Records
---
Amino acid sequence: MAPTSASGDQPSDKDNWDNGRLASKQQLLTEIVLRNKLTTLVFDGDTRCRVLEQVLLRSYGVQTQGVDNSRDAIALIAFGAKFNLIIIKKILPIMNGLEADSLNGSGCKILGVTACSGESERQAFLAIGVDVFIEKPLDPEHLVPILRELDGE
């Protein structure tokens, strides 16, 4: 039985707690159909985060490759690996994300993801050529528009 207000006509405010945001996110999850094959390089020193991001991308049909540091990412690109999107973190083992400025000439969109959302953090990412900067977590609300743009929608 559907909840109703005291008058019996409409749901109460407490039944509409998210103001439609959940329905909007569900629509984002179900409406994306990519026309082109997209590939993404995800580098994150935290294996769990890297795997979760790869699973999210794969759920949209995006092929992914993951590495845990910037040195390996730079080596992949130097050896000719091509990506539509690179997802980079600031804090990584061996060589941090801000030292990966050689990715700038890779010819793909670079997405900087970090737990810190300060202006200095944003400026540091933009200085190395990051196209888009978002605060963790990487979620469909931020990812889907980028995938649609890369897909030419």
---
Amino acid sequence: MRLAAVFEQQRAERICKEIEEQEFEEAQVFLQETEKHLKRGKRKPILDGEKLTKQTLLEQAMSEQLKERQEQEKRLQKVAKTMNHMERAKREEAAPLIEAAFQRRLLEEKVLHEREQQLEVELSRQHHDGDLKEKNSLARMLENYSGLEAGKGYQVQENILCEV
């Protein structure tokens, strides 16, 4: 019986040792893969005395990823700040140029508006002169027509009376 208990204990120890070895091998593979994916070699060295387990490696990988993200975010913020400064400087340099272009465009539009107004006045004057000529012509025609009508009107009334 004692022999069976010792045998069971040795078996359990052997199984635990095999599991630890398998976890160690998996941790080594995971460690190699994470080192491949790291862009920079700022990895904290793992001491030989430190026990390598999946959990510790995962925790280290997560903390390194978090640090990397934070560093990238800081770099991005710095670049964004620099870009904002550059854009502001560019706007400040461009402001007088924009103002000059605006004033030039305003002057061009003013000249164009005055020219269009002059053309409009000239066109209106031409229409008015044409309308006056037509009015005078129609007035003369009306006088001639009225004179003829007056004579015809008498004849038309006689024709009506004669027919009755």
